[in-house]
Amino acid sequence: MTMEQLHALFLAHPVICTDTRKITDNCLFFALKGPNFNGNEFATDALEKGAAYAIIDEEAYKTSERHILCDDVLQTLQQLATYHRKKSNAKVISLTGSNGKTTTKELINAVLSKKYRTVATKGNLNNHIGVPLTLLSIEKDTEIAIVEMGANHKKEIEFLCNIAQPDFGYITNFGKAHLEGFGGVEGVIQGKSELYDHLMAHDKYIFMNADDPVQLEKLGSYIKKMGFSTRDHQYYNIKFIEANPYVVLEVEGTRMETQLIGKYNFPNCCAAILMGKYFNVPLEDIKTALASYQPQNNRSQIIEKNGVKIILDAYNANPTSMRAALENFNAMQAENKTLIIGDMFELGPTAAEEHQTIADLAESLGFQTVFLVGKNFYGTKTPLAKFDSFDGLKEHIQKNPLQKGMVLIKGSRGMALERVLDLV
């Protein structure tokens, strides 16, 4: 079957499923493989549950005319996504970065959907499977697709760009994330910059944070760009007002309020505003979009429970985002502050040093109560209370309930620190 034929089949059955537990009637089932499963084994089951066709790559499982055999299911999914993207009239905006990708993507979508028909990456499905699925969600009337790209090693963003072929791009920042895979901060910069490299090589448009010296150096004299800045008047100026606890900013004399905690979310708002301006979204609509957006999925959510105000930022963590969160928490006005932070993953040989630095910072900021959780934090030299596992923290809190006041909870996804909510 040619790609043209497969695409015609997709247009007739425009829902992709990769999990037989989520089969919908008349979908296309792609039999992907993983370390512990072989999707080919479930292809017949997918058809029985209502899938129109199943795309497989092992001839032994072709027992029906509705089994479509290809060389490699994953590559076929990616090639179909690129083919569909080329056939679409939608403009594609890709974004990556060490911190804030998903929040920024959601803000951009909130702003641009005020004027355009948009699709955007669902959740954080931003890898070699998620990016194709996002592209395949583009419909005939879609005008803008916002595609988030994640990476934990070099050449990954370049690969995703070749699939998505973006018209526009933005990098949130370059931080200490996935240091193990990138081989250090310089590797992070090189890896994330693959998005800008791709855009410049294809003469495409770039959005930038002009207050970021790394981005300024990278983009240099490149003409097709638009940036925001708090100080340089050759770029679009946006003024930071406060983050106590919510970010408030000012654009063209218009005050804009958000439901986002922390100054670290200010540039994420700025990126959405910048793209809104480029695509001629009225300023009042931009203001409404920012004001109505509410963070979810353990990302800087404020939850009040039994007299305790909890800032739940337990979706992920790295040294850069952890420092920003602690400094922001320190700047907040509250009488009794409790800090609960968990291990940061994927730091490789720098793990011990980075955890010690954060422990030292937490001690220096003078919070009333601090709990460090996880094997890495447990190995630090600090007078702060520390537990080598969540169970240790749980036992302590059950005996010594959290005091009324404000609590910040932050750690890597694998620490699952949202479990603290059950202890309040």
Automatic annotation (TrEMBL):
One of its GO terms (molecular function) is UDP-N-acetylmuramoyl-tripeptide-D-alanyl-D-alanine ligase activity. Pathway: Cell wall biogenesis; peptidoglycan biosynthesis. Keywords: ATP-binding, Cell cycle, Cell division, Cell shape, Cell wall biogenesis/degradation, Cytoplasm, Ligase, Nucleotide-binding, Peptidoglycan synthesis. Residues 16-81 form the Mur ligase N-terminal catalytic domain. The lineage of its organism: Bacteria, Pseudomonadati, Bacteroidota, Flavobacteriia, Flavobacteriales. It comes from Flagellimonas iocasae. It comes from the Bacteria. ATP binds at residues 97-103. Its main location: cytoplasm. InterPro entries: Mur-like_cat_sf, Mur_ligase_C, Mur_ligase_C_dom_sf, Mur_ligase_cen, Mur_ligase_N, MurCDEF_CellWall_CoF430Synth, MurE/MurF_N, UDP-N-AcMur_synth. This is UDP-N-acetylmuramoyl-tripeptide--D-alanyl-D-alanine ligase. The gene is murF. Coiled coil: none annotated. PANTHER family: UDP-N-ACETYLMURAMOYL-TRIPEPTIDE--D-ALANYL-D-ALANINE LIGASE (PTHR43024). It catalyses: D-alanyl-D-alanine + UDP-N-acetyl-alpha-D-muramoyl-L-alanyl-gamma-D-glutamyl-meso-2,6-diaminopimelate + ATP = UDP-N-acetyl-alpha-D-muramoyl-L-alanyl-gamma-D-glutamyl-meso-2,6-diaminopimeloyl-D-alanyl-D-alanine + ADP + phosphate + H(+). Involved in cell wall formation. Catalyzes the final step in the synthesis of UDP-N-acetylmuramoyl-pentapeptide, the precursor of murein. Signal peptide: none annotated.
